[in-house]
Design goal:
This protein is α/β, with parallel strands linked by helices and 1939 residues long. The radius of gyration is 52 Å and the shape is extended. 44% of the residues lie in helices and 14% in strands. It contains 71 helices and 52 strands. The strands form 13 sheets. The protein has a seven-stranded mixed β-barrel with strand order 19-21-20-24-23-22-26. Strands 29-30-28-31-32-27-33 form a seven-stranded parallel sheet, sandwiched between helices. The C terminus is likely disordered. The protein starts with a strand and ends with a strand.
């Protein structure tokens, strides 16, 4: 708007916005900052202002003043030095100063009145008002003028969008398998589109509804920012497009927002470098072209497609957006969002989950002065480094260098207890002499207001104090209340954090900066102490740990950073409790005082107090060992922010391992086993353990399995409670001796040495003999049980047997209607099945459209297509057919009247009668009805007899008739048998004899020419004749009786009687085809017999007439069939056939238009026929037997029955018996329990296999000897840290598992010590990453156990170490901070996560159902209880409760009443109770009530104290890890006096605050009662704007109303598929028994529950249905499920699908019997139990292998007399060579020196001269031997010794052979034997023991030197066995064993 303001003096021209809003203001400021100019711009409220002096006067010192009626909008005055007449001046810096937060909060239109005046002193020269409007930022009017402003609503960094990332990634993984977004790093456009699709699909799953624009009375619609859309689950097209763009930009893509006249949608650049030149484009055609035609530059998306009311199809959304762009010719704007955000169109700030808004961006660049105020009120600010990296951040977090840290700024209050000390040296002397002191309180002291602490000067004070110290008493100035409170706080800290903050401090440093009057105090020396609250002999007791005393290095670091004072020379001065140099420390510190920082030391000031120290050791690790830390892959990824990739991606299932591969002593489900195996494979991963899923149990199994495989484990837990849970479970299985517990509050030398001594005394245990046998049995039994599930679900024949049975049971009433062929089943696949179903569906559609197929008059036609003339031609044919039918109908009626057969005729019977009459009138037949059935039955036999008779007649006429007696002599086949078994010569002889015999029997030699060639034919045929005759005589009875003739008569007229027989049989078969009843059949037969006998000519005439017409009919039908596929067989009327036939033809003639319909049917039926799925379906369908509505059911019933029949050909299924299978399950459980015990024993055996043993005398230099000595002297003059380093190998052999806190790990384990194979962190969601770094670096692989949906680490306790947080502070949460957790950081790195899925804690499913649904996406398998139809989460509404300063007394008293009721009830008082509150104030109030109750009722206090799980009262922050039977949940929030509820719910309202609620509501095992003064309806979660409030609202709703409030989550909707149980339920209902199926709220269900009259479940039925089938392992199916059901008091009965299918009645009857006798039947307990009393750690017998042998000296059998030989006879002698060869073969390896000595002795000479030398050389030449060298000396070996290997050494005296003549291979055996026993020893001891082995009691210098060389040579040689044991160090001064 432009406006002129004028009077006689001045004219003011201004250009001003008609309306203004937050976005314009933000953009204006950003524009100025980017352009480094404060001048007005197009986004300014006042864009231009020009003042013109139109008077004649000169003006100077003018002031332009603008005032606003809105208090948060102000303007600076503008000074105008002078303004001459007619002069213009432009004011270009007039932007208002506006309160960002208030401007942001504007929701509706406000009018702004700007009063503008120009003054000169007090004189107003001109004045006027300007009126404009202030809009909500959601309704910026200028988005029409500046569409780029819409990009400001696109907020990619919104925390609500960040929360969607898991949904995005889940969808991306479904699309392309990727688990992270990499955006433009992948240059393929298809990859970018895949990421866009993932966002699209995820938003669709979020269920956002399309809605109209929000209500508004202004011009432009309100815009919902992404956060609002996600919270409200609705949005307009513009809102949805903005949300989609924000999500795209969030993952690194460059989105486009497109707006048109009436619509909005989105898009994205597919190339990173693409953009619009001016951030915006109005060229729709260009946008369209770049998104189509294969350009792949842009992808457009229509965003309303992902709303809840649309079927989400990304491709459709792309297509729709493209069409919108193509058709747009009007208003069109495409906004390049990324380019806008890079310039001055910045995204608006959005509220975080805790409703905070950061406006830092808007103040960027302004210089603000920060003043450091009083040290007690504000932190001393660290000097910032130039660039803070991860290490810098961690260091800063660890040191806690702020003014509230008492190590820097000591507060003298009631929590700091002064110890009377007059001489610190005397105090130190007494402290070093004893560790336990009594504490005597002086409660009668008074301090002046100016007195900070007392000084105990004077001899008297000194004497009194010294006297007390000598008696072991410390005098402490404190009240008993304050003392107890201080001790209690330290004990609480130990419980919660594992760190003991209680110290006695000696020495006080007073310092101040720059002569400031403010003085600070800090302790100097800190000595850890432990105190007790209870008195002993009226005195308190404390125990000091002087070994772990330390200087206040926190203060030193603080002064170094803030005053540049270096205290490095004090490092290490008091290590190991050496306090003798403390006076030197004091003096050194005094010298550090400077003008800038004045330091004074008070040596005697001594106090007891809690100090938040402990992290310095962690800090020191990070500060000084960065390079070593970075060697760890996880730490490297954390520092560099790079993703962590796993090396091993293998799938682990039940078949991927065998039992002996893993050691799992405790029960484990499949999700746990997967984690256990991956841990043993060296994987780094997150163990995601939701509440009650057995995380601690899994960790124990993981540890045991690691130890079983020889790995070392460092288990880290910040809380002692978490560590104790793991330790307790390890102890329960007897392996605690191998675990070293070193949590900080137990870290004393005495406790460590005690544990090591216990482990050492265990010695070596024997491997259980049964281990392998039981492991194999377990494997076999597991395979047997798995075989069932595998075979049941194997798709061998299209569908599995399991699915086939279920589908058959659904439709079995339709079975046996049609027959699906076996061939079809064997070739069936998905495509063929779908084709059948598609055609059946078409038939159903036609039925619904055109009626039943059988009602179409043309149903007898099978024609599939026709020509144009077909109808006309058919009409003619039908007319002809009608004419013929009319004639034949008349003729048939005439004939039928004469026949009088009393038969209802259909076509088939007419055909049959016609055949019968044809036979009767034209054939000769036998009327013998009594024998007819047998004749038909044995018809094939009779035909054979006719054939044999015919054959015999032929044989007789050809052969036998020419011989006497028809050759009866050849009845027997003996002749042929003899002939066939003979050789050729014998055969000729036999033929010759036979010829002679036959010749004698020949009747007429002329008629039959007998010769030797046809003899065999004659005999063979004779044999056949008599064999046939024998068969005929035996089997012709039926034929004889039927024909009433004997065989001879039949044979004589064979052809005639055969014809009569065949006609008669046909006659009787046709009669049978009439299917008459016996009486009717007999009457019919008699009538036919009369007709046959009478042969009535008129009747014959009538029949012939009918027969002719009937034949013509069939010819015509055949012709029609050929032309039109006319199949009259489909027409089957049973009464008045021809009349109905005529009516059908008439109907067809009158309805020819319906003929086309039948073609469609026929085509479908033809398709089905071609599929050949059934032999009778088409026929039955055409005949109208099958109902169209049930066609698919007919198909399914026959299909699945046939499939089942195929499966049952497998003997496994046909013989399956459920009782036997149940027995196999019980056997599996027994074997598993047995194996679990044995695997513990085997693990102990493997761990202890290298343990030192008691019957060995260890050398003094060995670690074993030294450790034994250390144990005896209590660790004198060493520290735990040094002990663990010095004896690293031995200690980790004894205790391969360490249990530590992050602090103790850094404190006691050197960074360069040997890495543990596995580091396991428990409760990692509560461990800040910076505290975990040190422990992570001490291992190779990392397992981070925790729950990302539970408590994050907080500074809650650290910020409240002394004074409890006030309620106001608690509400404001000014110092409350959720810190980065190790778990969250690891998940952010992409470290893979293994979630534990089975929930075991809750004994009632309602206790976990809400959490599973709301926090875990219904991913947990939870177990229902028999009372599952009720909720065990109760809601107790306290309407009168009022929250007063954090305390709701009415709720507290209600909880007290509940506690009182339970302790007074004997049935309830054994149930453990936990009380959870929202804040500390309510916790303390209820604690006081409970304590008072116990004080008044000591009997109940005793009951509570005797319970191992005593009643607790805790708040949200410290209840994690605890569980009780009953949880009483105090929700103290209430409405105020005006009935309004403050929607701030403390820590719950923080980011991720809902996790706290999740922790609180998952602590109960049996019951939870919620005590609340508010209901769910009181919470308006939309206004609260955080997930915590919404979670609380939903939980209260659940507590009030139960399961019905739960909804199936998007990503894990539970669609439970029912199995055979639904049929069992129906069967039971028919028997009068009520039941439910699918009982439960998770993926696990009890298949069926039988209910009593009270609606409780009395019996659970488990089938092999979905819960059983989907279980991943045999354990899950057969142990875990049953075990948990038993624990929840279910009585479980098993029914197997196969049993039910085979005999459902039997199964149901047996089930009813169980129900009726439920109380008398003992149900099998399939629980998994380990009885530790059965463990047997039997000691292994120590049979040390003695690899020594006696030295055998070879003795020749004869001697060689050299002296008797002539001296010149120096030549080869066979006996000499033989001697030398035998010498080497018997004594080798043997040195050349010894060989020569033996040679000299053998030839009997004393001296070795030249002749002897020559003789030796000549005869030694050619000896077969291998040669080795030891220190250049040659040794000769027998030729058959491979690779110079020797497994023994030979004991020999010096006279037999010296050390120099022993080969190094024997020395290696000796060294190996020594090290196998000694493990580790000094070089000198090794030499000593080697010498002893070879009989040397004394070691000379030469011996020492020689053996040194030998050891050196042994070590340096490669590939020798000894290299597995020893290494050289320090020039062979030490030898160590490798572990």
């Amino acid at each position: 708007m432009e406006k002129k303001i004028a009077n006689d003096l001045f004219l003011i021209n201004l250009k001003c916005k008609e309306s203004y809003d937050f976005i314009l203001y933000q953009t204006s400021l950003t524009f100025k900052r980017i352009n480094k100019s404060n001048k007005n711009n197009v986004f300014s409220l006042i864009e231009e202002l020009k003042i013109t002096n139109i008077s004649l006067n000169e003006y100077s010192n003018l002031i332009l003043h603008i005032e606003s009626n809105i208090n948060f909008i102000k303007f600076n005055d503008t000074f105008i030095e002078f303004l001459n007449p007619d002069q213009n001046i432009f004011i270009d810096e007039l932007d208002p100063i506006i309160d960002f937060e208030k401007l942001y909060d504007i929701t509706e239109l406000i009018n702004i009145v700007l009063t503008m005046s120009l003054t000169n002193g007090d004189q107003i020269l001109i004045k006027d008002n300007i009126i404009c409007q202030l809009f909500s930022f959601l309704q910026s009017e200028y988005t029409y003028k500046f569409p780029e402003l819409l990009s400001c609503f696109i907020t990619p960094n919104d925390c609500y969008i960040d929360k969607l990332e898991p949904l995005f990634l889940n969808e991306l993984e479904k699309i392309n398998g990727e688990k992270k977004f990499i955006g433009y790093q992948n240059t393929k456009s298809s990859y970018i589109i895949a990421e866009m699709m993932a966002i699209f699909n995820a938003l669709n799953n979020y269920k956002i509804a399309y809605s109209n624009p929000p209500a508004s009375f202004e011009k432009f619609q309100k815009i919902r920012i992404p956060q609002c859309v996600l919270n409200m689950h609705k949005g307009t097209c513009l809102d949805l497009s903005i949300l989609y763009c924000a999500c795209l930009e969030n993952i690194g893509l460059h989105p486009i927002l497109i707006i048109t006249n009436s619509h909005a949608y989105a898009g994205c650049f597919l190339n990173e470098d693409d953009s619009f030149v001016d951030k915006i484009s109005d060229d729709a055609s260009n946008i369209y072209n770049n998104s189509t035609f294969g350009n792949n530059n842009l992808c457009l998306v229509e965003c309303t497609q992902f709303t809840i009311d649309k079927y989400a199809d990304f491709n459709l959304a792309v297509k729709t957006a493209s069409e919108l762009t193509k058709d747009n010719v009007n208003f069109f704007k495409a906004i390049d969002v990324f380019s806008c955000h890079k310039s001055f169109y910045k995204a608006i700030p959005t509220p975080s989950i805790d409703n905070k808004i950061e406006f830092n961006l808007l103040t960027e660049g302004k210089n603000e002065k920060l003043e450091i105020t009083d040290l007690n009120k504000a932190d001393i600010i660290l000097k910032p480094s130039k660039e803070e990296n991860k290490f810098t951040y961690w260091e800063r977090k660890l040191l806690d260098l702020n003014g509230k840290n008492k190590l820097i700024n000591l507060k003298f209050n009631n929590s700091l207890l002064q110890v009377a000390t007059s001489d610190y040296k005397s105090l130190l002397k007494h402290l070093s002499e004893k560790t336990n002191f009594k504490v005597l309180l002086n409660q009668e002291f008074q301090k002046n207001s100016d007195t900070l602490y007392f000084a105990f000067n004077g001899d008297e004070n000194k004497r009194i104090i010294e006297d007390s110290l000598s008696k072991g008493i410390l005098k402490v100035y404190s009240t008993e209340k304050d003392y107890k409170k201080t001790i209690k706080k330290s004990l609480d800290s130990v419980e919660e954090t594992g760190a003991n903050p209680l110290y006695v401090t000696i020495g006080l440093i007073r310092y101040n900066f720059d002569n400031s009057k403010k003085i600070y105090y800090a302790p100097l020396l800190l000595i850890p102490i432990r105190g007790k609250i209870k008195k002993s002999n009226n005195l308190f007791e404390i125990e000091l740990d002087i070994d772990n005393a330390f200087l206040n290095i926190t203060l030193f670091e603080f002064l170094k950073l803030n005053a540049n004072i270096d205290f490095s020379e004090l490092s290490g001065t008091i290590d190991n409790g050496d306090l003798n140099k403390l006076s030197l420390v004091f003096n050194t510190i005094r010298t550090k005082s400077t003008k800038e920082c004045q330091i004074v030391v008070d040596e005697n000031a001594t106090f007891i107090g809690n100090f938040s120290f402990g992290n310095f050791i962690l800090w020191d690790d990070i500060k000084n060992r960065k390079s070593q830390l970075m060697e760890n892959n996880v730490i490297n990824s954390l520092v560099n922010g790079t993703n962590f990739y796993s090396n091993n991606q293998q799938c682990i299932n039940d078949d991927s391992y065998i039992p002996s591969d893993i050691a799992i002593p405790l029960s484990a489900d499949s999700s746990q086993i997967k984690a256990i195996i991956e841990a043993s494979l060296g994987e780094t991963f997150v163990l995601d353990g939701p509440p009650g899923t057995g995380k601690s149990q899994t960790i124990v199994n993981m540890i045991v399995n690691a130890l079983y495989h020889g790995k070392t484990v460092l288990f880290v837990a910040e809380k002692m409670a978490a560590l104790e849970v793991v330790y307790k479970r390890i102890k329960e299985i007897g392996l605690d001796k191998f675990v070293l517990e070193l949590h900080s509050n137990k870290a004393t030398k005495r406790s460590v040495l005690s544990q090591l001594e216990e482990a050492k005394n265990f010695e070596q245990s024997r491997s259980p003999e049964e281990f392998k046998l039981i492991a194999d049995k377990l494997l076999n039994k597991k395979s047997e049980l798995n075989l069932f599930i595998n075979k049941m679900h194997e798709n061998k024949y299209f569908a599995s047997l399991y699915d086939s049975i279920l589908k058959y049971e659904e439709v079995k009433e339709y079975a046996d209607k049609i027959n699906v062929t076996e061939e079809f089943i064997l070739s069936l696949d998905k495509n063929k099945d779908e084709e059948v179903r598609a055609n059946l569906k078409k038939l159903i559609i036609l039925y619904n459209d055109k009626g039943p197929f059988i009602d179409n008059p043309f149903y007898v036609f099978k024609l599939e297509k026709m020509s144009n003339n077909t109808k006309d031609e058919l009409n003619i044919e039908l007319i002809n057919l009608l004419d013929l039918l009319t004639k034949i109908s008349y003729t048939f009626d005439e004939l039928n009247n004469k026949l009088d057969f009393e038969i209802i005729y259909d076509r088939k019977k007419i055909e049959t009668i016609n055949k019968i009459l044809n036979i009767v009138f034209k054939k000769k037949i036998i009327f013998n009805i009594t024998e007819s059935e047998n004749a038909i039955k044995f018809h094939d036999l009779n035909l054979k007899i006719f054939s044999l008779l015919d054959e015999n007649n032929e044989i007789y006429n050809t052969y036998l008739s020419h011989f006497i007696n028809r050759l009866e002599m050849f009845k027997s086949s003996e002749f042929l048998s003899e002939y066939n078994s003979s050789n050729d010569r014998e055969k000729r002889k036999i033929i010759k004899i036979a010829y002679k015999s036959l010749k004698k029997l020949l009747i007429n030699k002329k008629e039959f020419k007998l010769n030797k060639k046809n003899v065999l034919d004659v005999i063979t045929n004779a044999n056949i004749y008599y064999e046939n005759l024998d068969f005929i005589n035996k089997n012709s009875t039926i034929l004889i009786h039927f024909l009433k003739l004997n065989i001879s008569e039949i044979s004589e007229n064979l052809n005639e009687y055969k014809e009569i027989y065949l006609d008669s049989i046909s006659f009787y078969k046709e009669i049978n085809a009439l299917e008459l009843l016996d009486n009717s059949k007999y009457n019919f037969f008699k009538k036919v017999e009369v007709i046959y006998d009478n042969k009535d000519e008129f009747l014959i005439y009538s029949f012939n007439k009918f027969n002719d017409l009937f034949n013509k009919l069939k010819i015509l039908e055949s012709s029609m069939n050929e032309r039109y596929k006319f199949d009259i067989n489909l027409y089957n009327k049973k009464d008045e056939y021809f009349k109905c036939y005529i009516n059908l033809i008439k109907l067809e003639l009158s309805n020819l238009d319906y003929f086309e319909d039948i073609l469609i049917y026929n085509k479908i039926l033809s398709n089905l026929n071609n599929l050949k799925f059934s032999t009778d379906f088409i026929i039955m369908y055409r005949q109208g037997i099958l109902l169209e509505d049930d066609l698919v059911k007919y198909y399914d019933s026959s299909l699945y029955k046939q499939i089942i029949m195929q499966y049952f050909k497998d003997e496994y299924f046909s013989t399956f018996n459920g009782l036997l299978f149940n027995d196999a399950i019980d056997e599996y459980k027994k074997i598993l329990n047995k194996y679990s015990l044995l695997v513990i024993e085997e693990t102990a055996s493997r761990i202890s296999s290298h343990f030192p043993v008691s019957n060995v005398d260890y050398a003094q230099s060995t670690d074993v000897y030294k450790l034994n000595k250390l144990i005896k002297n209590g660790g004198y003059k060493t520290s735990i840290r040094n002990m663990l380093a010095d004896f690293e190998g031995l200690i980790r052999t004894l205790c391969p598992c360490f249990l530590m806190s992050p602090l103790s790990a850094a404190q006691y384990l050197k960074i360069d010590s040997k890495k543990f194979d596995i580091v396991i962190f428990d409760e990692a969601s509560q461990i800040p990453t910076y505290e975990a770094i040190g422990a992570i670096a001490r291992g190779n692989n990392l397992i981070v156990a925790g729950d990302p949906e539970q408590l994050p680490p907080t500074n809650f306790f650290k910020n409240n170490s002394d004074d409890d947080m006030s309620y106001d502070n608690y509400q404001n949460l000014t110092n409350y901070e959720d810190l980065e957790s190790l778990l969250d950081d690891c998940l952010a790195l992409g470290i893979k996560s293994n979630r534990l899925l089975w929930h075991y804690r809750s004994k009632h499913e309602s206790l976990i159902a809400f959490s599973n649904n709301y926090f875990y996406d219904n991913s947990l398998y939870t177990f229902p209880s028999p009372t599952n139809n009720m909720s065990n989460v109760k809601f107790n509404y306290i309407p009168l409760g009022v929250n007063n300063n954090g305390v709701n007394k009415e709720v507290g008293r209600a909880i007290l009443n509940e506690v009182s009721k339970r302790f007074k009830d004997k049935n309830l008082q054994h149930k453990t109770i936990g009380i959870v509150t929202f804040n500390i104030k309510q916790q303390e109030y209820i604690s006081d009530l409970i304590n008072d109750f116990f004080d008044l009722n000591p009997q109940y206090s005793i009951i509570n104290e005797n319970n191992p799980d005593q009643l607790f009262v805790k708040n949200l922050e410290n209840v994690q890890g605890d569980e009780r039977d009953v949880i009483l949940f105090s929700i103290g929030f209430s409405k105020n006096n005006k009935g309004k509820l403050n929607l701030f719910f403390g820590p719950l309202s923080l980011d991720k605050g809902e996790r706290r609620l999740n922790v609180a509501i998952t602590r109960a095992r049996e019951e939870m009662i919620v005590f609340s003064s508010i209901k769910s309806s009181d919470i308006n979660s939309d206004k609260a704007k955080n997930y915590g409030a919404l979670a609380l609202k939903n939980f209260l709703n659940y507590a009030e109303k139960g399961y019905s409030t739960l909804i199936a989550t998007n990503s894990n909707v539970i669609n439970h598929k029912f199995g055979v149980e639904k049929f069992i339920q129906q069967d039971l209902l028919e028997k009068g028994y009520r039941s439910d199926i699918g009982i439960g709220e998770s993926k696990f269900r009890i298949d069926l529950g039988v209910k009593d009259n009270s609606n409780n479940y009395i019996l659970g039925v488990m089938c092999d249905s979905e819960s059983y089938n989907n279980a991943k392992t045999c354990r899950d199916r057969n142990v875990i499920q049953n075990s948990m059901c038993n624990k929840l008091n279910w009585k479980i009965y098993h029914i197997w699908t196969i049993d039910y299918y085979k005999n459902p009645k039997k199964v149901i009857n047996e089930l009813i019997n169980v129900i009726q006798n439920i109380d008398r039947i003992k149900f099998s307990d399939n629980s998994f139990n380990i009885n530790r009393s059965n463990l047997n750690f039997s000691k292994k017998e120590q049979n040390f292998i003695d690899n020594s042998r006696a030295y055998y000296k070879y003795q020749a059998t004869n001697e060689y007399d050299y002296k008797n030989r002539y001296i010149n006879e120096i030549y080869y002698h066979e006996e000499l060579k033989k001697f030398l060869q035998n010498l080497i073969n018997n004594e080798g390896p043997i040195s050349l020196d010894i060989i020569k000595d033996r040679f000299k002795d053998y030839i009997n000479v004393k001296k070795w001269g030249n002749n002897v030398e020559n003789l030796f050389i000549i005869n030694f030449r050619g000896i077969e031997a291998k040669i080795s060298k030891t220190l250049e000396k040659e040794f000769y070996w027998p030729i058959d010794v491979p690779n110079f290997k020797i497994e023994y050494y030979r004991k020999s005296s010096y006279l037999e052979r010296s050390l120099e003549n022993i080969p190094i291979e024997e020395f290696k055996v000796v060294i190996n034997d020594i090290l196998m026993i000694q493990n580790d020893l000094s070089f000198d001891d090794l030499i000593r023991l080697i010498a002893i082995k070879f009989g040397y009691s004394k070691i000379t210098d030469s011996t020492y030197s020689f053996l040194s060389k030998i050891i050196n040579e042994a070590i340096n040689r490669n590939n020798d066995k000894i290299d597995d044991y020893i290494n050289s160090k320090d020039n062979l001064k030490h030898v160590t064993i490798k572990y």
